[in-house]
Amino acid sequence: MRKISVRDLEPGTKFTRSVYLDKDTVFVGSDQPITQQDLDRLNQFGISFVLTDGEKITLAESEKMSGANGLGHFDTNLPFYQDDENSTRFKYILEKANSSKVEFNAVFKDCFELVQKTYKSASEGRYTEIREFREIAERIADHTKSNNQLPILLLSHSHSGYYLYSHICYATFFSVMIGNFLEFSRPKLIDLALASLFADIGMVTVPEEVSEKRGPLTELDLKTIKRHPVTGYQILTQRLKLKNSLAIVSLQHHEALDGSGYPQRIMANQIEELTKVFMIGDQFAAMIHPRPYRQSIVPYEAMKIMISENVNRFDLKMVRLFLNKLSMFPVGSGVVLSDERMGLVIEANRDKPLRPVVRVTKDGDGRRLKHLEFVDLMKDLNLYIQKAIPFSQIY
To answer: Which end of the chain, N or C, is less surrounded by CB atoms within 10 Å?
Structure first.
């Protein structure tokens, strides 16, 4: 990261990447304006420079990005249905999601392109340097630490690229998000991101007619797929020279805490912490996106499966934390209320995961609302969530 003199900053200055006080401490997030109060604070503590990898955003660029991203899924340029303090706070959540979209889309795009290039090269026996992956791992870690609206962005995001490459990017983001919930340090989050990005590299040795098969897998198909953790670990340790503490995630990510996984059928105390985190992010990302042999599962159903059918596979404390932060109806997912209105979950209520805050988008007849309306189900006890629906149906 390069140094920026505080004397060159003024109120309203924005950068395309997060700005730091030091390598671990975020000062302001990407596309977030620096205020006079921020500058006064820097001067008060005698800080003469800040750090960033981003470029300064001009006024014209800022207006262009706002115009491109202020509408659509998180449109906030509408009158309030009820203009009060809570509505203002809920609107701010959506505005923050809008302002974060530009950087999120850029990081995801760069992640996908790097994974695609590297995995394709690996399938041909050519291997890249770790350095490029460390850079994208740092960007993912930093974006996650500075972006509280990441769940909304992840669940509303769609990518049409090849499944394996896009899945690795989604699984990495979800894993780093969980690591952030666990209060991992920045270096540990970067390690988690790096390990996650390489976790499925063994899949490049699985023939596409097996990995993309629409019908049921044969016993031979299953044996072929179940070899990929070992193959991936060998590629990472022998060819890419990734340190063992990170490469082990590739070897262990299909294990289960009850010993029912593969390839080694090891138990909870033998599975590394980073692997336990990635196992949750990997499974959740896989379920909520479509595969050749099945449709995607709505986030509510995916969460339900993880805390019921698959409860013995994962670290229960981590799954509970994931649930508490995202809610049973995860932030960013679509729902139908008991009065038939539809909406977007925008905030979890930690004590009552079935009663989050919902931004209502359609009335009971399916007509899109022309105002901003929010329902806090902790306060409006006459309403409840009737069912979860795909994100695509709420707008």
So the answer is: C
